[in-house]
Amino acid sequence: MTDSWDTIADWYAGLLRTGSVMHEFNCNVLLKLLPDKLGGCRVLDLGCGEGIVARAVAARGASVAGIDPSPRMIEHARAADAGGPGTVVYAVDDGCVLSTVATNSLNWVTAGLSLNNVPDLDAALAAVRRVLMARGSLAFTVPHPCFEAPHAAWTQATGRPVRRIVGDYLAEGFWRSDNPEGARRAGNQHRTLSTYLTALVRHGFVLETVTEPSPSAQVVAAQPHRAGLPPFLAVRARRA
Ligand SMILES: C[S@@+](CC[C@H](N)C(=O)[O-])C[C@H]1O[C@@H](n2cnc3c(N)ncnc32)[C@H](O)[C@@H]1O
């Protein structure tokens, strides 16, 4: 069977529920792009998965909706959220369309590791722009395009430190990892750094923040070879 986000949803939710330092780090990187207090704000979490980001944003006081095209991910997100404080409203939806979200209705859209999964970035950014109010903002993370390009790998020559090998940075498009323990076995849309940034500008966004954070101490403790490279690219852009 070919993996999809829906077929690996149980695995992904289990991974995050038992504590994945990389996903916790990613969530923290994304949260740093947002104000500490979000009371009175309406936020959409695009590609919410099992809800790690949506729950954290709701905990800051925002009214949050989470969408994901995977029905099984949405089941996990609803189960994790049931009855808790800062309840999130979840729906099955495509980030390229956002058919469940009203036009000009949101202060923020967050997207943690999901824009690198949408098949059509232009359609997703047009949809995000449509649902944001004037001066509303998009905050997102993606696996760092320069270091997490298709089939990038770790290598180590005798007596030398572990190094990252990237060979296919310019090969944009869909690719699938052959790592049976990796999330990208479900597939992933590789885009270059310039593709992300120029697409934002083309869709009428003003870049406010672009960061490439160093891996946290917890990430480096779990995966020492990651020291020295940013695993994620984080961007905040305001609707002009
Ligand atoms: C790596 S997971 C990230 C989930 C969550 N944001 C997190 O930080 O754990 C990628 C998510 O993107 C979702 N996705 C795939 N295609 C999508 C699309 N067209 N629109 C929105 N989300 C999509 C997947 O279903 C999956 O839940």
Strands, helices and their partners?
Blueprint: H1 9-17, H2 21-31, E1 42-46, H3 52-58, E2 63-68, H4 71-81, E3 89-92, E4 106-112, H5 121-131, E5 132-143, E6 153-155, E7 163-165, E8 173-175, E9 188-190, H6 193-202, E10 205-211, H7 217-222, E11 232-239
Parallel strand pairs: 1-2, 1-4, 2-3, 4-5
Antiparallel strand pairs: 5-11, 6-7, 8-9, 10-11
Helix pairs in contact: 2-3
The structure holds S-adenosylmethionine (SAM).
S-adenosylmethionine binds next to helix 2 and helix 3.
According to CATH, what is the topology? Answer: Rossmann fold
Give the full name of the CATH homologous superfamily: Vaccinia Virus protein VP39
**Distinct ligand kinds:** S-adenosylmethionine
**Major sheet: arrangement of strands:** 3-2-1-4-5-11-10
Largest sheet: 7 strands, mixed
Q: Give the N-to-C terminal Cα separation.
A: 44 Å
Amount of helix: 25-40%
CATH architecture: 3-Layer(aba) Sandwich
* N-to-C order of helices and strands: HHEHEHEEHEEEEEHEHE
Oligomeric nature of the chains = single chain
Number of domains: 1
Radius of gyration: 17 Å
In the CATH scheme, the class would be Alpha Beta
Query: DSSP strand (E) fraction?
Result: 25-35%
- The strand count comes to 11
Mean residue pLDDT: 96
Q: Give me the secondary-structure category.
A: alpha/beta
* Inertia-based shape: globular
Residue windows where pLDDT falls under 50 for at least 5 positions: none
The total count of helices amounts to 7
